[in-house]
Design goal:
By secondary structure, this protein is mostly helical. The chain is built from two helices and no strands. 86% of the residues lie in helices and 0% in strands. The chain is flat and about 35 Å long.
């Protein structure tokens, strides 16, 4: 149960950081940027 609680807390924290970074950018543009960065990291 502790790991599940920690995972939920981590998910909330990451979501809050993403919201802070995103600011007033449209959700689709932000999603495209993040997916591009993740793809670039995976092929590097």
């Amino acid at each position: 149960m502790t790991k599940e609680h920690e995972r939920d807390e981590l998910h909330r924290t990451i979501w809050q950081i993403a919201n802070d970074l995103r600011g007033s950018v449209d959700g689709w543009d932000f999603k495209s940027y993040v997916l591009g960065v993740l793809f670039y990291r995976s092929i590097s």
